[in-house]
């Protein structure tokens, strides 16, 4: 009986649930701005960033072309106009609900980083790549 329960839990549809089913809707330069209309993503970002939400989200004035990731995720890169290297944010959104967020603000000597992925012990690779544009600052 115990084996059946473990087998059922492991292979149940919920085990492979996709939290963010429609990331493709935001994968073009014209549509990426609409990602902030997705209430589920916005709420999850707010839950993760808490009091830092406005600091993180405030950089999304101009957008890079969104980058589709191999695993179905999406990298969304934004910044304040004319301040790409001083006030910038990036988020990797995975279909399974994992979020990886990074941002810099003026006069700060670090890149802020947050994730809801409890298994990730390193900085997410796409976020690391994004961070290479900043000279003389690293992650907090």
What are the key terms here?
single chain; 140 residues; 21% strand; globular; alpha+beta
Structure write-up:
This protein has helices at 2-11, 39-49, 53-57, 125-131, and strands spanning 62-63, 67-68, 74-79, 88-93, 99-104, 110-115, 138-139. It has 140 residues and is an alpha+beta fold. Strands 1, 2, 3, 4, 5, 6 and 7 form a seven-stranded mixed beta sheet that branches. Strand 4 (88-93) and strand 5 form a beta hairpin. The longest helix has 11 residues, at 39-49. The model is unreliable at 2-16 (pLDDT under 50).
First CA to last CA: what distance? 47 Å
Number of strands: 7
Measured as a percent range, the helix fraction is: 10-25%
Query: Major sheet, described briefly?
Result: 7 strands, mixed
State Rg: 17 Å
> In percent terms, what proportion of residues is strand?
15-25%
Query: Looking at the structure, what is the overall shape?
Result: globular
Helix and strand sequence: HHHEEEEEEHE
**Low-pLDDT windows of residues:** 2-16
What's the overall average pLDDT, rounded? 87
Query: So how many helices?
Result: 4
Name the structural class. alpha+beta
């Amino acid at each position: 009986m115990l084996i059946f329960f473990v087998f059922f839990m492991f292979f149940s549809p919920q085990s492979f649930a996709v939290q963010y089913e429609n990331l493709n809707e935001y994968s073009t330069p014209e549509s990426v701005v609409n990602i902030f209309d997705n209430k589920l993503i916005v709420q999850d970002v707010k839950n993760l960033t808490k009091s830092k939400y406005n600091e993180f989200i405030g950089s999304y004035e101009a957008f890079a072309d969104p980058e589709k990731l191999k695993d179905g995720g999406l990298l969304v890169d934004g910044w304040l106009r004319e301040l790409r290297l001083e006030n910038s944010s990036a988020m990797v959104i995975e279909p399974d609900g994992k979020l990886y967020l990074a941002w810099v603000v003026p006069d700060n000597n670090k890149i802020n980083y947050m994730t809801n992925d409890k298994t990730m012990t390193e900085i997410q690779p796409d976020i690391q790549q994004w961070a290479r544009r900043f000279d003389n600052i690293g992650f907090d």
